[in-house]
Amino acid sequence: MTPEAARGTNRSFLFVLGSSRADGNSEALAREAAAHLPADIPQRWVDLNRLSLPDFQDGRHEAAGRQTDEVEEELRRATVEATDLVIVSPLYWYSLSAQTKRYLDYWSGWLNVPGSDFKERMAGGTLWGVTAMAHDEHEVADGLVTTLNHSAAYLRMHFGGVLKGSASRPGQIQEDEQALIRAKTFFHQQTPLARFPYEEESDAVA
The NADPH-dependent FMN reductase-like domain covers which part of the protein (predicted)? Predict the structure, then answer.
């Protein structure tokens, strides 16, 4: 069975929390969306702040290669075993949080772990994003959206888009009625295969 076929059978969601604040608005919005998933779909939540994960060190060109410790290996396994991966990060300086970006940097190392088949195992899955921002103008999050879309495109994943909400102080996301409405159906939409802009341009020319 191909990775794509396997992911289409039994879905499981991994929510990766990347805020520097516990119980933040992005997490609250993600939990609102997750509450509307069918009860028989497993959910796993990982808070990057609770993991002893050091800054990523690129060792792919070293003779011994990269060695993964127990915490990193558990995170890698959780990532590749999920059919649906949800990146939950507030908008920090118009991009992802440092914790979330560090997690994505580890993907570079996992591409080169012997026997991991990271790229092959991620292919066919779906990447989603959830973010809260101190703006009413959601286009300011375009950089975050682009990062996630391109990451999904590189791994040949589907991209479900980013659920956005406007909030700054703790609990303020509950005042964004439109975000809460979108959350109810966010994980139920169709998810196209992620593509780079140049791939779309090539199709248009053809």
Answer: 14-125
pLDDT tens digits, residue range 122-151?
999 999 999 999 999 999 999 999 999 999
What does the pLDDT average to over 100-112?
Answer: 93
d(CA 171, CA 23): 9
Length of the chain: 206
The angle at the Cα of 35, spanning 33 to 3, to the nearest 5 degrees, equals 75
Token match 């659920």: residue? 163
Q: Which residues contact 115 (CB under 8 A, 6 or more apart)?
A: none
Q: Read off the tokens for 169.
A: 């102080």
Quote the CA–CA distance of 4 and 9 in Å, as a whole number: 9
Give percent helix, percent strand, percent coil of the chain, each to the nearest 5: 45, 15, 40
d(CA 108, CA 12): 23
